[in-house]
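Students often ask why we bother encoding 3D structure as a string. The short answer is that it lets us treat folding as translation between two languages. Here is a chain of 374 residues written in the first language.
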Amino acid sequence: MHLNRNDEDTLAGELGPVKQKAMEILVALGDIYGAEKLIPIESAQIAGVSYKTIGEAGLEYLTDLTGSVTVPTMLNPMGMDRYKWRQMGIKEAFVEKQLAIIRRYESLGIDAQCTCTPYYVKAPRKEAHLSWSESSAVSYANSVLGARTNREGGPSALAAALVGKTPDYGYHLDENRVPDISIKIDFPLAGADFGALGYVVGKIINSQVPQFSFVTPPSDDELKALGAGMAATGSVALFYPEQGAMSSEIIELERSDVDIYSSSEPDVVVLGCPHCSRSELTEIARLLEGRTVTRPLWICTSRFVADRCSSLISRIEATGARVICDTCMIVSPAFEKRSMMVNSGKALEYGPNLCNSHTVIGTTSSCVNTACNT
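And here it is in the second language, the structure alphabet:
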């Protein structure tokens, strides 16, 4: 892989041992994937934030890092809401470790906006090269915003943030951004149907690049849910939601293929995986209007979004529901070993695997009805 003079100096340790190690990681990745060069990135987004997932080893690793990132960088969700952790039942020992992790990231100049929807904080430019970690964020950036990023691991995204570059391979290259399978949907879908569709399609196509044909065009929120489901079950990082030339391989699904909903009497109902947008919070507030929550209902969103619609949050919480920021049901110990009802294909996949939770999926309306026991 070709390195310019500055890259070579960094690799040789001229800019210190931390950036030297970061460059070593990027060069190794480039060699593995056959990249010809490093390319500048516009931003980075780092996974490996919750103490639940990285533990003592991760905290120790972060403690040894010094210096500063060279591009705008945000964090994935952590294991708790930094202000409502008591309401969530988080133990103080966990809080102490979690806040230590956040402080370490902040010491590197990283913005502690702990969200899986960094594009709500600042959307990247079309064609911009990124180094993002969170699977649903990667899918949204590539597929809806037209930016370019591979699905990075936490260490490689952090290395790219420190250096400001990433190896030029995978979805950074035009030749890898071509649909290779078509998915034909001849029936109407709405809302949580798209998360269910993503859950199903990801299991079928694995990491291929699908082109969809829909009866009606989905909204951005629905595309977010679709991409999140496919990323969780099939590692799909790029899809095309608009109808184009059909590929040689076409999969036609029936309504029954996507109807994976089930009723439940869960311990808790959790919405917001990925984090809710303002429009999704508006819909939840509408569904809750005039009602009282009788079963725990938690709604996850970014602090950036919540801070900009405080009256909407107040309406939701007046019903007994709780809006939490900085975290989600997948990376927080608050939801471990509990039966959950969700409206997300991503959460349906990760709940049993990462939370050891019995998880079922329903529409947003049925989730709210279950929380209100109606």
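Translate back mentally: The first strand starts at residue 38 and ends at 40. Keep this in mind for the problem set.
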